[in-house]
Specification:
By secondary structure, the protein is mainly alpha-helical. About 75% of the residues lie in helices and about 0% in strands. The C terminus is likely disordered.
């Protein structure tokens, strides 16, 4: 070491600085090597040394190593401080062990240490992330009751946890309490609640938060603008959706693929297909790789506007790319053909489609029922089930009801039996593929299913 050449021996402070630097910029293994050199030099590591190691392991997501470091610290007789306990508690929460984390919080008090804001914020965050929002709320209430000074980050943690749990009402209430406190909600607070409102389909509440945020002069990110514009579009308020996106572009935010898709959706809903096509060209010129959703929006919009030729033409242009596997776009075109009365073309497209999903079959069955072609719909329904695929319950009901209402009650009962048997066969095959049951068990399984038992008791065991 350069210190020795100068006649100055490094002390614990010098080594701690090296340990911390290695943890931050090189890696935990390099930091451990410094600790070993430190011990060889006869200098004992202290709590600061091990706190640096704990932080480094936590930053690298080596959470199990963090626990080993804590154990090593105890074995060396080094007493952990509050910082050590806070880091350990954070690690247990990230490992999905909330009980262990809470035990660490209790140990803080048992070791005559006073929990600080970081302790409470770590506990609140961990409880929320592990699904214990009721416990987090109880802790928050107790902190307020005992006059503990809360930080803005404390409110943000709780609001974020409640929003992720879908508890919008509770999140709005905490937001109101934050407004009544000495702190002012920031952009992160509002954006968190805003996104939750739209996720829970509470559009009016979301727009209230949006206008409140706007009135206070907060800026939005691209995601927030797109979320609000999408909500306006769903409510049919296309002018406001358009205005929202224009404000975003004027504010200097660089649009991403989500922004472009939102604009594309608005243009298609407004019937501005030329503008949508120009936008598509602009995206490609700017080097954006359009995803399946981009093209599906355009195809679906053209179909709903009755421009099936335009939709087909767009599909043909993109058929040479991976877009040819875009089921959503083909499903939109298929449904659009039927609604436009082009049943023969729809059936031809259906036969040409190499990949089909439950929505493909469900759409076909529903549309065949509308044409009163119940026999064809029945055959297609059974074909779907025999191929091991699911189909929407509404499609099943439409076929059975259609056959029965046409005066063929006996045929409707036979169809119900065939549907049930097709489902049993599908379950048998999938169970056999899983390798959990023997052929003898499969026969018993089939017999029990025929008698109406959906979950035979032996299914929970691998062997008798």
């Amino acid at each position: 070491m350069a210190f020795k050449g100068l006649g100055v021996l490094p002390d614990v402070v010098t080594y701690n600085a090296l340990v911390d630097a290695n943890c931050r910029f090189v890696g935990i293994d390099a930091a451990y090597a410094v600790v070993r050199r430190m011990q060889v030099a006869g200098i004992k590591p202290n709590v600061i040394t091990y706190n640096s190691l704990l932080a480094g392991a936590s930053r690298d997501f080596r959470l199990s190593l963090s626990l080993d470091i804590f154990e090593e610290m105890l074995e060396l007789g080094i007493s952990p401080d509050l910082w050590s306990f806070n880091t350990l508690m954070h690690c247990f929460f990230r490992l999905g062990k909330p009980d262990e984390a809470y035990r660490v919080f209790r140990d803080i008090i048992l070791n005559d240490l006073r929990p600080d804001k970081t302790s409470f914020n770590t506990l609140l965050n961990g409880l929320c992330r592990n699904g214990y929002t009721d416990n987090a709320l109880m802790l928050y209430r107790n902190l307020k009751r005992h006059g503990c000074e809360l930080e803005l980050i404390t409110y943000n943690i709780l609001i974020d946890g409640l929003c992720k749990a879908g508890r919008l009402k509770a999140a709005r209430w905490i937001l109101k309490e934050l407004g009544d406190s000495c702190y002012i909600p920031n952009a992160i607070t509002y954006t968190t609640v805003l996104k939750c409102c739209f996720r829970c389909r509470q559009f009016e509440e979301g727009l209230e938060v949006f206008w409140e945020m706007k009135s206070k002069g907060y800026t939005f990110d691209a995601f927030a603008y797109c979320t609000v514009a999408g909500a306006f579009a769903k409510k049919g308020r296309l002018k406001e959706a358009n205005d929202c996106m224009e404000v975003m572009l004027d504010s200097g935010i660089t649009p991403d693929i989500v922004s472009y898709n939102t604009l594309m959706n608005i243009y298609c809903k407004e019937g501005k297909f030329e503008a949508a096509s120009e936008l598509l060209n602009k995206m490609e010129n700017e080097g954006f790789e359009c995803d399946h959703y981009t093209h599906t929006i355009l195809v679906d919009g053209l179909c709903k506007a009755g421009n099936l030729e335009g939709a087909q033409r767009h599909l043909q242009i993109k058929s040479s790319t991976v877009f040819s596997t875009n089921l959503a776009a083909y499903n939109s075109l298929l449904d659009g053909m039927y609604k436009a009365g082009h049943a023969k073309h729809a059936m031809k497209l259906f036969k040409l489609m190499k990949i089909k999903d439950e929505f493909t079959y469900s759409s076909m069955v529903h549309n065949l029922c509308k044409e009163r072609k119940f026999r064809t719909a029945s055959r297609l329904l059974l074909s779907c089930l025999k191929n091991g695929m699911n189909i929407l319950k509404s499609a099943e009901r439409a076929v059975i009801r259609g056959v029965r209402d046409s005066g063929f009650r006996k045929d409707a009962r036979k169809l119900q039996t065939k549907i049930r048997m097709a489902k049993i066969l599908r379950n048998l095959i999938s169970t056999l593929d899983s390798g959990n049951l023997t052929w003898m068990q499969l026969i018993d399984f089939g017999m029990l299913q025929c008698k109406g038992f959906q979950n035979p008791p032996f299914l929970i065991k691998k062997n008798y």
